[in-house]
Specification:
Length: 139
């Protein structure tokens, strides 16, 4: 992985074999990012995305292996108890154009991933909601 900082934006290249969520964390911790918007495109060969069931308060994870293009990867960086926390969603398409997606748990790059991290001045924390079953933004 390599990246450059341009004022309030970080442009990153995540390389083959690297896991996207892990590399985002490395960048943000190294650069002291506590609040940001994230977007990316690229290609992955192994990824897990989930769908949250608000009734059971559980995620159903789906894992995909093969050749997939990232159609969209969007999310944010905040903090939970003063530590790095990312919330990302990704959709990826296969060679037939079928697209799968959801809450991103992990994604291993197969060719490259081009990420833009738009850093914001400030902090937003998260707090677990027993009612919802998720770590919600807390202002």
């Amino acid at each position: 992985m390599e990246y450059r900082v341009f004022f309030d934006k970080i442009i990153a290249r995540i390389d083959r074999g690297e896991e996207i969520c892990e590399q985002l964390k490395v960048i943000c911790e190294k650069e002291g990012v506590t609040l940001a918007s994230v977007s990316a495109i690229g290609a992955v060969g192994d990824f897990t995305v989930g769908v949250f069931n608000p009734h059971t308060k559980e995620y159903k994870a789906n894992t995909f292996t093969g050749d997939y293009e990232i159609v969209s990867l969007l999310g944010n960086v905040t903090e939970l108890n003063g530590k790095f926390y990312s919330h990302l969603h990704m959709s990826a398409g296969d060679e037939e154009g079928k697209v799968f997606g959801g809450h991103l748990n992990r994604a291993v790059v197969s060719a490259t991933c081009e990420m833009v991290i738009e850093v914001m001045d400030g902090r937003v924390d998260r707090k677990f909601s027993d009612e919802i079953g998720l770590n919600l933004l807390e202002f």
